[in-house]
Amino acid sequence: LYGVTLNNLVEPYRHLNQRDKAVEILKTAIEIFKKYIERAPVFYAAAINNLGTFYYEEKRYQEAKECFEVGVKISKEKMGTQSESYIHSMENYERACAALGQETEAGSDTEEKTAAETVKAVPEEHIRTESSGLDAKPGSFHITEQSKGLEIAEAYFFDVCYPMLKRELPEYLPRMAAGLVGEGSECYGYDDMISRDHDFGPSFQIYVPAEDVPVYGKKLRAEVNKLPTAYACFGSRNESAYGGGRIGLFTIEDFYDKFLSIHEVPTSNKVWLQMMDYPLSTATNGKVFMDNLGKFTEIREGLLKHYPRDVQLKKIAACCMQAAQSGQYNFPRSLRRNQYVAAHHALDQFIEQFSSIIYLLNRVYKPYYKWEHEGLKKLPLMGIATHQAMEKITLLDYKEDSNHVIFEIEQLCKKLIGVLKSRGLTSSASDFLLDHGPEILKRIEDPELKNSNPWN
To answer: Which one of 71, 188, 270, 431 is most buried, by most CB atoms within 10 A?
Structure first.
């Protein structure tokens, strides 16, 4: 923080024409940043570029070139060739070389020059890919009243917020990521006209490392709060009484902590086993519009790889046990006793547990219960068949047509057992799904999981 404070004093001294003092404190700041380069490379690169700019203005081109060359190297190694820091450093370096009448040298390498030219060419085409961190052209989005919330959010961010970030916080932009992830139907792409009565409207999230907040968090939040809240044909976000805290500025750590109580990818089966589908789905849905630092996306991609195989099998085994008990056993027994409320609960349990198995087999986290059935349609392995069967089961009158409901449940279980066999997860000939739970456990390598209770 002391180094950042020193760096922030450079501009006032420059305006006061106390250039020697400005250079002196800048060199002190650089020495401080150098010690913490792994934690905050953007500050070191920014400071060394500022020193180079002083030298360049004084026509001390060789010294300027040497500073800019360090900036290029640090930005490339720590932030990548698509970062604002790298592009800025490379431009300064080439300008210093030109002033010296030199070609860009190899300390600058041809690869870097080519990369810089490529990145500078991007804004003409305004290519955007998830987590690319590249510019998007303001006004290049076609937003209509029928546009989905995620489309509106991405357009709003690039048209309204991103130009402000480049203008007001360019030195910190390489540390930022942005997107829309988490709670709300728009994050799944399931929003419709009914969804617009609450927590809907132009919005986005910005994610930064926790250590950055004391440095520029206050300014970033203030600048974001100044942005117009209406966008295109949409008014301000209609936020409900309990819909707060979903958008705006987050530290990367706080964002993942909010849903998962951890802010890193688990490294042990024990931790993975404690995690639940819905929070994992919520923390990894939506879209990342930009990630210049890469830290937010690194965690996201690690989580999206899904549970380790042993944990996946353990969860499938437990769900098979629960689905069998509720759907194949307790549901028909409750109907025979005319206990229709108990039958209703049993059927709900069966639908939940059976759906979990299908999501687990497809290595996709099961979403919030409201979107659990809708999401099945996107799953290649038994997804559509399960979606259709579940809909049929729930529409049947199980008081008047109980045998038909039981038949549909049994047919669905037989299909699943066939899939489990085809994947080598069971060799049992039983039609009772419960008998396949212990069979699945036998395929687990982790001794603790392999010998654990198949029910949980």
So the answer is: 71
